[in-house]
Amino acid sequence: xxxxxxxxKGGIFRHDEIIDLIEDLGGYIIQKHMIAQEVVxxxxxxxxxxxxIRRVGKPIxxxxxxxxxxGTEIAVVTPSLEIHHLPHASCDVAEYIRRFGAKTNMVGxxxxxxxxxxxxxxxxxxxxxxxxxxxxxxxDFETCxxxxxxxxxxxxxxxxxLCGGPSTEALKSLIDPPVDGYVGGIGxxxxxxKESEEIAKLDEVVEEVTRVLDRKREILAKDPLSISPARxxxxxxxxxxxxxxxxxxxxxxxxxxxxxxxxxxxxxSSRIRATEVDDGITIGELAxxxxxxxxxxxxxxxxxxxxxxxxx
Length: 312
Description:
With 312 residues, the chain is of the alpha/beta class. The chain has 3 domains: 3-66, LOR/SDH bifunctional enzyme, conserved domain (Alpha-Beta Plaits); 73-221, Rossmann fold (3-Layer(aba) Sandwich), CATH 3.40.50; 229-308. The chain has helices spanning 15-24, 50-57, 89-98, 122-129, 142-153, 168-174, 196-222, 229-239, 265-274, 283-286, 305-308, and strands spanning 3-11, 28-35, 38-46, 63-66, 73-78, 103-108, 133-137, 160-164, 181-184, 252-254, 258-261, 276-278, 281-282, 287-291, 298-302. The strands form 4 sheets. Strands 6-5-7-8-9 form a 5-stranded parallel beta sheet, sandwiched between helices. A 4-stranded antiparallel beta sheet has the order 2-3-1-4. Helix 3 packs across helix 7 (196-222). The protein is globular, with a radius of gyration of 20 Å. 36% of the residues are buried.
């Protein structure tokens, strides 16, 4: 069964029927938003059953659309939190990617500005590496990007999508060794993205991130995970009651090869390791339970089949 990422939007009335249908078909609800009289469900559903869900949702004003980034967590990296780096381009990119299902986190570097002093510390590097992908927004000037990127990419193990003011072709010629993706023509600007050509640039960012993550999915498929991150999320939600008291919109953030659980590591890591998934198999056997560098959260890295010799 192939699960594909989608977003369902519809009225609150009878939306529980859609949730039950998705779960009965073997799908997973990744995130649920209640906005006034509308419900938004980000989900993984069986590919062959999308039309069935669409037919059931139509009488209750529901619609289902593809959302290629559901189940991913992306870092949007900007050289600093100062006015000339952060406010508009970075926030607009992060918000727009979120519309397609991704969970995005802004990472403003403490010393990322200035060619002479540009650098990244260990904590920033570790936080970025906890994501599925990193989108770098590095401004308008070719010489600045060429000089600073080597320091800002050092030690980064996740795919990098580079955005900047120069054209895509110029960015590709500047960077050696190359990064995983490029989007040119999106540098620093001091206004919100409203014009059609600006929105088109944000669409290019989404397309490039989707292409890069699809390639990562192909690599993961060659040695499949021991358990689906979405299923592991359901197990933790059912058996760790305290997760229901977390006020974050995403108490458990689903990634391509793991989870971020927003509970204190020292208090809950041993319980999570010992939690049974199926027939005596525990989470600790299927995943590495690690302390996150983001606050005091728990990071789960699911082991591949080649390490565990089992797929649950």
